[in-house]
Amino acid sequence: MLLWFESNGPHRHRRVAPSDSTLGVARRQLRATLEARRRSVPYLVRAHAARQVARHADRALHFAAGMRIALYAALPHELDAAPLIELARSRGCQIYLPRIDRARRARGMRFVALGATLRSNRLGIAEPAAGTVLGARWLDLIFLPLTAFDRQGVRLGTGGGYYDRALAFRRWRRHWHAPRLIGVGYAFQELPHLERAVHDVLMDAVVTEEGMIRCATG
């Protein structure tokens, strides 16, 4: 596997060129590098970035009452979605969070209305303890955490594949792309190119602390 860094403005990015190694090995190594950098972001910088993300999303996506929006409860090292959740609440949106199937072999994920009670799953992620379940097809917007992304809409997650399985129906559509998939991350997580795996579901846009990036599908 050949790895090199490529400059793109003020950020330096790690690019993956496939050789005789598998895409999975390349992704694991790239994920480890970028997750380490994400964990190094100071709390105050992370909090400011989260507020900026909410502002950019508000300007670009025009949240309106009644919209069905899926967000996520961030882990300590992820870009916090709390300002986005508060924004959606203030606009009268219906908010859903992902909940992972508790059967270890199922590896499925559903979207559940955000209620008063949250509990941590086996991965340490807060989920609604109970609530109305809505199929992903009927959501208007889904915000996805990410480890890396490119402008073609390829997303590198944490490796669990939960979002890709829940949104697999998007891969077979040629014209209707609802729900819109919006990645959430730092600007330094953008790469010039990510090799797309067969199971990858492309994003429509990514919002960072620097603004909204429209992807090829968006």
Task: Please provide a brief summary of the model.
The chain has four helices and 14 strands. It has 218 residues and is of the alpha/beta class. The longest helix has 19 residues, at 43-61.
Question: Care to describe what's here?
Answer:
By secondary structure, the chain is of the alpha/beta class. The chain has 4 helices and 14 strands. The chain has helices at residues 23-39, 43-61, 82-90, 162-166; strands at 2-8, 11-17, 68-70, 94-100, 109-113, 118-120, 126-128, 133-134, 141-145, 148-149, 155-156, 180-184, 205-208, 211-214. The strands form 4 sheets. An 8-stranded mixed β-sheet has the order 8-5-4-3-9-12-13-14. Strands 1-2 form a two-stranded antiparallel ribbon. Strands 6-7 form a two-stranded antiparallel ribbon. Strand 6 and strand 7 (126-128) form a beta hairpin. 32% of the residues are buried.
Helix content: 10-25%
Strand content: 25-35%
Instruction: Count up the helices.
Output: 4
What's the end-to-end separation, in Å? 31 Å
CATH fold node name = Rossmann fold
How many discrete structural domains?
1
Query: How does the helix and strand content classify structurally?
Result: alpha/beta
Radius of gyration: 17 Å
Mean pLDDT, nearest integer? 85
By CATH, the superfamily comes out as NagB/RpiA/CoA transferase-like
CATH architectural grouping: 3-Layer(aba) Sandwich
One letter per element, helices H and strands E, the order comes to EEHHEHEEEEEEEEHEEE
Spatial strand order of the main sheet = 8-5-4-3-9-12-13-14
Given this structure, which CATH class is correct? Alpha Beta
Shape: globular
Number of strands: 14
Unreliable sequence segments: 1-20
Largest sheet: 8 strands, mixed
